[in-house]
Amino acid sequence: MDASQSANTAELQSFLEQEKQKAVLNELVGKLTDVCWEKCITYAPGSKFSSSEVSCLSNCAQRYLDTSTLILRRFQNMQR
Amino acid sequence: MIEEGTETHEREIIAFTSLSRRIHYQVQRKCGILRLTIMDPFGAPPSSLSGNQPSNEHMMGQLKQQLAQAYAEEFFSTVRDKCFTKCVPKPGSSLSGSESSCITRCVERYIEATGIVSRAVFTALPR
């Protein structure tokens, strides 16, 4: 592989790496919205979110991440 | 040479696609197109490959576009499910006015909810 080709490959690889990170975040946000929508939006949605719905969505997303961390740690401890 | 490079890209792209099952197919297809363009740019004979290689910008642009479409399709399908469940609990012989306006509001709220969750995630993530 000549120099320009390997530069091309490196550029493509870093591009894919970036897109990969975006895909992970995108997937996470999509998943969390799905789960928290089910938990927090109990009635047919109105023309505006109530403040309790907003804080429910936000708390739900953050606690889901906490839960995920907690369970991961638990699993790591089990492996030892 | 070129094939080796192509395989590296392909492996990267396949690892990348395993992240989301639903966009897997689109990117897999994209990968095929990517491979084709690298192997056979503009249908030129293999000997003149390096001169006619499609630019990275071109490939990255195409992949971005394809991904954006895959994300949009996935989002559409989720919102449709959510709003159908919420707004059309008992489907009648046609979509009523109140069901339609519920769907409109539901779509807006789902987009807003995505924004709220997105901000919550970015605040929570270690930077």
UniProtKB/TrEMBL annotation, chain A:
One of its GO terms (cellular component) is mitochondrial inner membrane. It is a peripheral membrane protein. It is found in: Mitochondrion inner membrane. Keywords: Chaperone, Disulfide bond, Membrane, Mitochondrion, Mitochondrion inner membrane, Protein transport, Translocation, Transport. Residues 15-77 form the Tim10-like domain. It comes from the Eukaryota. InterPro entries: Tim10-like (IPR004217), Tim10-like_dom_sf (IPR035427). GO terms for biological process: protein transport. Its main location: mitochondrion. Transmembrane segments: none annotated. Mitochondrial intermembrane chaperone that participates in the import and insertion of some multi-pass transmembrane proteins into the mitochondrial inner membrane. Also required for the transfer of beta-barrel precursors from the TOM complex to the sorting and assembly machinery (SAM complex) of the outer membrane. Acts as a chaperone-like protein that protects the hydrophobic precursors from aggregation and guide them through the mitochondrial intermembrane space. Belongs to the small Tim family. Heterohexamer. The twin CX3C motif contains 4 conserved Cys residues that form 2 disulfide bonds in the mitochondrial intermembrane space. This is Mitochondrial import inner membrane translocase subunit. It comes from Riccia fluitans. The lineage of its organism: Eukaryota, Viridiplantae, Streptophyta, Embryophyta, Marchantiophyta.
UniProtKB/TrEMBL annotation, chain B:
GO terms for cellular component: mitochondrial inner membrane; mitochondrial intermembrane space chaperone complex. InterPro entries: Tim10-like, Tim10-like_dom_sf. It is a peripheral membrane protein. Transmembrane segments: none annotated. GO terms for molecular function: metal ion binding. Keywords: Chaperone, Disulfide bond, Membrane, Metal-binding, Mitochondrion, Mitochondrion inner membrane, Protein transport, Translocation, Transport, Zinc. One of its GO terms (biological process) is protein transport. Pfam families: zf-Tim10_DDP. Residues 62-120 form the Tim10-like domain. The keyword Membrane applies. It is found in: Mitochondrion inner membrane; Mitochondrion intermembrane space. Heterohexamer; composed of 3 copies of TIM8 and 3 copies of TIM13, named soluble 70 kDa complex. Associates with the TIM22 complex, whose core is composed of TIM22. The twin CX3C motif contains 4 conserved Cys residues that form 2 disulfide bonds in the mitochondrial intermembrane space. Belongs to the small Tim family. Mitochondrial intermembrane chaperone that participates in the import and insertion of some multi-pass transmembrane proteins into the mitochondrial inner membrane. Also required for the transfer of beta-barrel precursors from the TOM complex to the sorting and assembly machinery (SAM complex) of the outer membrane. Acts as a chaperone-like protein that protects the hydrophobic precursors from aggregation and guide them through the mitochondrial intermembrane space. This is Mitochondrial import inner membrane translocase subunit.
